[in-house]
Known about the structure:
By secondary structure, this protein is an alpha+beta fold. 60% of the residues lie in helices and 11% in strands. α4 packs antiparallel against α5, α6 (188-198) crosses α8 and α8 (223-239) packs antiparallel against α10.
Amino acid sequence: MSRTGLFAAWIRRQIPAILTAAGAAAIFLAVIILYQLPAEPVGYASLLAALFLLASGLLRFRSYVKKHRELEALRSRITIPAIPLPETADLIERDYQELLRLLDRERSAIIYEKDRAYEEMTEYYTIWAHQIKTPIAAMRLLLQTDGAPDKDELHEQLFRIEQYTEMVLQYIRLDGKGSDFVFRTVSLDDCIRQAVRKYAQSFIRKRIRLNYEPVDARVLTDEKWLVFVIEQVLSNALKYTPRGEISIYLHPDRPLSLVIEDTGIGIDPADLPRVFERGYTGFTGRADKRSTGIGLWLCKRIMNKLSHTIEIESEPGRGTRVILGLKSEPLMVE
């Protein structure tokens, strides 16, 4: 902005002060006329007052221009957090500056969360793209072999593709604005049976025994999301249990806590504290090239959103226990 434009903007800002000064001068002039004071001392005093006001106005205009230039220079640095704003002695300006700092901190936090979410999404889709290639490549090899392909193996690979596709859809829904959580009291046995039916063929193919008796319990939850978590836990149990059995039962000492226990290869004690971290596979996961470290991380996030808990206990070579805490506090209506 040119100096003329700055001066015009400054004058507009000083209009209240100018009107106040004009009113005071009018009162002063009326008193002089009424009392018929000598013109010479009055004129001399008026000249000195005018010079003082002019000098004061010029100094204030200079300060106004300086502050404008400083604020204009800060525009190019707006992406830098904690911008050093010009010092001011005015209370209102300090209030505005504090408001700007608060808004800047909020903006920085929002940008950080968005960047983090984008990085997580990019990493997840990269992993998923590599993950989905494995069953597709296996199916291609089966179809290229001589004779009729193994139908059971083809079904298994198709099932894995469906599983990975469902996982990515749930990932998208979990962070979407329309996360369709519908909380109601549901039968826990219905949720377990849905998950077991989905993996029935895997139990048969791997000859894994299932120990399950109806638990006869009801929980306040979102049925669709809870079923997804149970399915993921069963998938891991089947993946890391080459032989033996999987048991599903209520914890004897914890109220409304569902236990899914297997007799598989177990988890190394050094890996247990990190099994819910995104992308962490640990020793067991590195032994199984299909592991991506996404399933348990996704389960943990879902359980947190459902106000449930998930814990893992394991011993290498003896199996793993996953404990889903489903207890909820009753709502009191006042």
